Task: structure prediction
Amino acid sequence: MIKLTWLSHASWLIETKTQKILLDPFFAGNPKAQVSAADFHDATHVLVSHGHADHVADVEAVIKKSGAQLIASYEIAQHYQKNHGVENAIGMNLGGTFAMPDGTVKMVPALHSSSFPDGTYAGEPAGFVLRSEDRRLYFACDTAFFTDMKWYAGGSDVAILPIGDLYTMGIHDSIEAVKLIEPRVVLPTHYDTWPPIEQDAAAWANKVHSETDSKPVVLKVGETYQV
Result:
């Protein structure tokens, strides 16, 4: 059993048998966050999709508190090793797969941009395909719609897709992604943090239900879904 907890914005807690994985921890400065880095003293891994502030704000704090292993692009891993004293970091690139205690994580493409808060280059943006306990989970992360999603994530047990629009794909394009990927279950992410990305998640779920064969699951901040 894998537990997925939406921590607001694009931040997720992924719990497997022995792992507590944080994806894109953003709590400080996040108006919707109900937790802080201190709440994750037992995190085992931190996945980072790209370098934007709303995805890396609490990376250093979580790792210092927990000793978690950082898994990110080569450039992001190098940045945290050189500038923040992070010793346990795995730098990957698109298409690569890393073996974890309870499965594997593959870094897959995302159509977005990636820079650190100071504007310096942070490698290529990415999504992740996580395999664990005979389940396959696709975290599209910040991205536009693109047809290669089917190659990397087609038939996933779970897909987590952005719906906020403006900075990522919105509701219309996310529905097209669901049709293409055909996941068993789909959850929305990267929406409602600020007015520019406010969306009606219930309307999105109705579209998923009426236009696809996937099951939509809309979580409130802090709620958990078990796969």
Notes: Residues 3-226 form a domain with the Metallo-beta-lactamase; Chain A fold (CATH 3.60.15.10). The two ends are 6 Å apart (CA to CA).
